[in-house]
Amino acid sequence: MTELGCPNSNHITNYTRLGSPQRTNHSELVSGIIRAVSPESWLYCRGGRVLPRAADLDGVGGRPPIHIANVSWGLQDASFYQVQDRDWDNLVYNEGVAVFAIAGNHGGSGDSNEVDSPGKGYNVVTVGSFSDTNDWYSFFSSDKNPAAGQTKPDVLAPGENIAAAGRMDSGTSFASPHAAGFAANLMSEWMQYAPATLKATLLASSTYSIGGVSQGTVGAEGLDFHNAFYGAYFHKWSGSNSSFGYFAANDGGSSWDDNFLEAPVDLNASMSNVRIVFSYLNRGSWAYQYPGSSWALGTSYRMRVRNPSGQTIAYTDVSWENPYLMLEIDPTVTGTYNVMIERVGNNDYSANFIAGLNVTW
Amino acid sequence: MKTLHLALMVLFAACAGCDDEGSIRVLNDANSSEEQVPFEIVSCPATSAYTHLGEEEVHEPFEVVIEDPHQFRELYLTIDPTNQEEIPAIDFSENRSVFIYLGQQTNTFPEVRLDEVISNESGITVTYENVQPSADCETDGALTEPYCIISLPKSDEPIRFSVSTVKECYKP
User: Fold this and answer.
1) What whole-number distance in Å separates Cα of residue A273 and Cα of residue A263?
2) Is residue B34 part of a domain?
3) Which one of A26, A48, A77 has the shortest CB-CB distance to B140?
4) b or e along A128-139 (b: 16 or more beta carbons within 10 Å of the residue's beta carbon)?
5) What is the mean pLDDT of chain A?
6) Is the pLDDT confidence value at A14 over 80?
């Protein structure tokens, strides 16, 4: 985690404060939430609201390496993709660190209701807030699409009257560490998740119904721990830009579908609301050159699903705005369904192909 | 012509009282005598520990003069209900209290910064700054309800408020 100042080292277990000033109120509640959600994770904090240093990433003092970063602060009233968005996107892309950032607390404030930076990041998982008292979207939680047209926040987590570490407060600052802590638990089970597959998993499994959500402005709904842990199928790809073609040509099927990634998934006719998410990473440095443009995504894809008879039963539009694709299907027959992903835009030839797929039912 | 002079004088006086953010400060007459009023800051937390989202929400900003201990206690507990500190003790037989509340804020940065309390023949003016983050500031994502309570000697003089909004970033 990175905060303005960090928690007292005596107040948090399994925690290393990385040479930063101590500041208790905000950071102790944030760290207390992470500790409560993920009791066995090791927590680092660097003050000054900064990126982790290169030397931090592999772990400090023989402690575990950093896989997840929580950012419970943001830059408000910034319409376009900012330096913060670029830098944290690059951290995800270059270092494989999954980043969770706040949506911001500008809900209901009209034009300024856009998510904060770095929550505008394409690779960043942006977390909005709901009340776990009434399962209703928090009035303060930002939910307006950024100027780039992204659907944000990505997921929702509890953020109202959150008590931990002897403190209680409200805000998206306290929703984000719920998601980050949960991700730590997921990655403890499946290290392969980080970070594109992790995002696909969170988007696919966040089906917990939340009232008051503005349709079309929130990527998914409430985190659902049970959904994410059980009943999911996942797949990951990682390679150079050209590796997409290699993966597509060598994953079975006929020569006709050599342009498609294919992921066979066994589904049962008794299942319903099967959610399929394909997520990929985008270079922050590329996106920063094209703020507010569909060019901000260096590569674009579309996805279709075929039933066991080979008929296409669902398909998406091209991922012009979000670095992920999402479908929901209700299987009508039991058998092996084929999830097929086609790359339709490849403007950023320097971008590696780093992607994940999750199917949750 | 006389009317025009008067109008220009009024405009000049109004602009001299403005600052960057459009202060509502009322200037005193040049011949009036001003004096500082001694005051004590009772509590001015930059953040409150709890944001109440129940039915009886008090989120709109206000400035209020309190002369009664029961009214003070009620207001204090409404604004900061889970504060573990003792309710501030103010001797209302000799003092009165001023309660400035900024309303609900979207981050931990805003605060009430008391400048001065001035008395002149038109009454007492409490001057304070409403400190807000600049647009280029990174701020924490916690809701807060900053307030400031001061006490000053009891009197019958009316109290008015002069507030200016100051935008800055946190400096460690």
Assistant:
1) 18
2) yes
3) A26
4) bbbbbeebebbe
5) 91
6) yes
Minimal CA–CA distance to B74: which of B63, B61, B62, B87?
A: B87
- A167 contacts B142? CB cut-off 8 A: no
Q: What are phi and psi of A8, to 5 degrees?
A: -60, 130
| Separation in Å, CA A179 to CA A360, A361, B142 | 18, 20, 16
- Predicted local confidence at residue B76, as pLDDT: 86
Say if the Cβ atoms of A76 and B136 lie within 8 Å. Answer: no
Q: What is the pLDDT of residue B172?
A: 56
DSSP letter for each residue of A161-178: SEEETTEEE-SGGGTHHH
pLDDT for res B4: 35
| pLDDT value of position B25 | 43
| Amino acid (one-letter) located at A239 | G
Per the domain annotation, does B36 fall within a domain?
Answer: yes
Q: Hey, is the C-beta of A77 within 8 angstroms of any chain B C-beta?
A: yes
Say yes or no to pLDDT of A6 above 70: yes
**Binary contact (B49, A167; C-beta < 8 A):** yes
Q: Which residues of B touch A143 (CB under 8 A)?
A: none
Q: What is the pLDDT of residue B142?
A: 92
Residue B172 resides in a domain: no
Number of domains present in the structure of chain B: 1
Q: Going by C-beta distance under 8 Å and a sequence separation of 6 or more, which residues neighbour residue B23?
A: B17, B162, B163, B164
Those residues with Cβ within 8 angstroms of residue A340's Cβ, 6 or more apart along the chain or in another chain: A257, A260, A261, A262, A263, A303, A304, A305, A306
Alpha-carbon torsion A225, A230, A231, A237, what sign? positive
ipTM: 0.86
Contact A358, A339 (CB under 8 A): no
In chain A, which among 176-205 make CB contacts under 8 A with chain B? 176
Q: In this structure, are residues A325 and A301 in contact, taking their beta carbons and an 8 Å threshold?
A: yes
B134 in a structural domain = yes
pLDDT band at A124 (very low <50, low <70, confident <90, very high): very high
Cβ-defined contact of A171 to B139 (cutoff 8 Å): no
> Residue A228: which H helix or E strand, with range?
helix A225-229
3-class state of residue B4 by DSSP: helix
Best of B84, B104, B138, B144 to substitute, by most chain A Cβ atoms within 10 angstroms, is: B138
pLDDT of B104 reads 85
The answer to whether the CB atoms of A104 and B50 lie below 8 A apart is no
Domain residues for the domain of B136 are 2-167
Q: Which two tokens stand for residue B1?
A: 């012509």
- By the 8 A CB rule, do B106 and B76 touch? no
The answer to whether residue A108 scores a pLDDT higher than 90 is: no
- Return the residue of A nearest to B45 by Cα: A25
Please tell me which of the candidates A21, A160, A173 has its beta carbon nearest to residue B141: A173
Average pLDDT over residues B117-137: 92
DSSP 3-state of B55: coil
